[in-house]
Structures are given as C-alpha cells and as structure tokens.
Amino acid sequence: MANKRIDKPTGTETVGHEWDGIEELNTPLPRWWLWTFYACIVFAIGYTIAYPAWPMVNSATKGMLGWTSHEQLAKEMAKADESKGAIRAALAKIPIERLPEDSELMRAAVAGGRAAFKVNCVQCHGAGAAGSKGYPNLNDDDWLWGGDLKAITYTLEHGVRQPDGEDTRFSMMPAFGADGILTSAQVSQVADHVLSLSGKAKDNAAGAQIFADNCAVCHGPNGKGMREFGAPNLTDPIWLYGGSREDVIATVTNSRYGVMPAWKDRLDPVTIKMLAAYVHSLGGGEDFVEVAEDPATEVDEQS
Ligand code: HEC
Ligand code: HEC
User: Fold this and answer.
1) Please, is 114 exposed, middle or buried when counting C-beta atoms within 10 Å of its C-beta (0-12, 13-18, 19+)?
2) pTM, full prediction
3) Which ligand minimizes its atom distance to the CA of 282?
4) Which of 59, 63, 230, 269 would be a feasible disulfide site paired with 144, CB 3.0-4.6 Å?
5) Which residue's CA is the closest to the ligand 1 atom numbered 17?
6) Tell me: the pLDDT tens digits for 214-235?
C-alpha cells in the first residue's frame, strides 16, 4: 500500500492505515508464539491421523493406532473384574466366622454386601435396614434368630418359615385367641403381663400365670425370648409387630408368621457371605465366640 512507511522512533513498518493521524505498526508476532502455533498445528494433524477424529457419513476416521473408547472401557472393566475376582476367591475360601480376622477382606465384603443389599433386601428391610412393622430392624442388637456371622449366614441361606425349605428357620406361635386356646379375657390379662415386662403396664398375677403356662416355652420364663424359636424378647422396647396394647392383643389372638426368603438358591455363596458381613457390620453384630460362651444367648446348634 502506498501509505506504508517506516516509523522513525520504533524502526517498524506501519500497516498503511491512518485515522485522524493515528497509524498502526506492523509488529511481527513473537517467534516463540509462532513456533508454538506451528507445533500445535503439527500435533493436531498427527493426532487426527493417530486417533479417531474426522466425521464421515456413517462413522468417523478410525485412526492409525486403532484406539477405541469402547475397548479402553472393556480393558478397565476386565481389570476391575480381576481384582474383584481375587476378593471373591478369597471370600469363597474363608469360613465366615474367621472373616473378622482379615480386616481388609472384611471391608471388601461389607462393601459388596451393601451393594447386594440394595438390590435384594431393601424392599422388605428398608434402605437403611431399619425395617418396619413385621420386618426386623437389622441395625440393632435385638436378634430373633441370632446375630453372629454364622447365625446370620444361616438365616440368609435358609430363610424363615419357607414352605418347602427343610432347613429353614421355623416356629409357629399358636393363635391363642382365634383358636380358642385362651378366652379374650385371658388374652387381655396375658397382654397386660407382656406389657408389664417392659414397664408399660402393672403386674397381674393371672396374666403372669397364663404366661408361664402358655408362653414361657418359647419366650422364656422371663420373656427374654429364645433364638431356637425366633421368639422375640418381650422385655425390651423393640417391637416387631407393635407394642401398643391393641397390637399385643392382636398378636396373641391371631399369632404372627413372618416369612423371609431363602437366598441360597437365588444368590451365590460369596454374595451371601458379603450380605452377612454387611448386616453384621450394621451395629448389632455379635462376636461368634462370645455368643457361644454365653448359654443365655446361645445360638441354634445347627446354624
Ligand atoms: C420378602 C421380604 C424380605 C426380603 C426380600 C428380605 N427379608 Fe430378611 N426378613 C424378612 C422377615 C419378615 C424377617 C423376620 C422373620 C421372622 O419373623 O422371624 C426377616 C429376617 C431377617 C434376618 C433375621 C433377623 C434376626 O433378628 O434374626 C436377617 C439377618 C435378614 N432378614 C436379612 C435379610 C437380607 C440380607 C436380605 C436380602 C438378601 C433380606 N433379609 C431380604 C423379610 C425379608
Ligand atoms: C411356639 C412358640 C411360641 C409360643 C408358645 C408363644 N409365642 Fe409369641 N412369638 C413366637 C414367635 C416365633 C414370634 C415372632 C413371630 C414372627 O416373627 O412372625 C412371637 C411373637 C410374639 C409377640 C410379638 C412381639 C413383637 O416384638 O412384636 C408377642 C407380643 C408374643 N409373641 C406374645 C406371646 C404370648 C403372650 C404368648 C403366650 C400366650 C406367646 N407369645 C406364645 C413364638 C411363640
């Protein structure tokens, strides 16, 4: 352009434009910037050759390296499976009651059990395993059938009151009112006795006698419950079917029959171990050895 000239003070050529006497210098780009820019172009071209990049009609260029995100995912999954496989193999080998000795394996089992619980158990026991009426809370140390790892595993494997489970946990409280074993007045008296065990009603001699004659075989002479029969402790404030007078009268009149699925045919043994570890970890888990030493809370022999 005609107006281009060398700017005296800087020695740089101008671009040739002029606005009200103001001109623009044609300062060259810094060399480092330029080379970085060229390097980026070279890298970008190289990248689109090496990796999948340019969109085509139905797919995209595949890239010389043959890399796919799909394959990378598959490889990572395989690696994760491999490490999981090692944990599963170790779990398959260790007897459940020895699991607490290996704190790392125990932690892995609890994590796996938590995941399996969400799939298989929450519909009955609730997301936090807190249970609801008829479905026991698994967070507390109040156990129907036993709270050490072996007892929990047995409960999970064989379920409770499964119609064709030979080894299922089983017992049946009679329907004292409905079947005419007790009159409704007697049901009322024994209900008051049950409530008196947790301080919710006054003692009554008649109720205590009825309890001793009809209930102590399963719930124990003091009403503390017996795990051989899955008979709940009636002296604590924890109720499976409700602790109001009406609830207790309904239980004694009609009985209850809680059913829990047997999981041994639906889940593999390792998953069952993981679930047992998870349930055991929730807060009420009992030490296997201690339980065996204390005859008052002895667990079912066959478990
Ligand atoms: C269909 C409902 C249902 C599902 C699903 C279910 N449970 Fe249960 N579970 C019950 C009931 C009901 C009982 C109480 C049985 C009784 O009255 O003795 C029970 C009892 C238990 C006990 C014994 C508690 C004790 O105090 O001894 C454990 C442990 C247990 N469930 C764990 C699990 C786990 C783990 C799963 C998932 C694999 C699961 N349950 C799935 C209904 C269910
Ligand atoms: C054959 C054993 C057996 C006998 C006898 C028996 N029970 Fe039970 N009782 C059980 C079992 C098992 C349960 C738990 C049922 C379930 O989990 O579905 C239970 C549950 C109860 C509950 C509910 C507790 C709760 O936490 O909600 C009460 C109350 C109760 N029994 C009172 C009595 C009284 C009172 C008698 C005597 C009149 C009696 N039982 C006799 C086995 C027995």
Assistant:
1) middle
2) 0.79
3) 1
4) 230
5) 258
6) 999 999 999 999 999 999 999 9
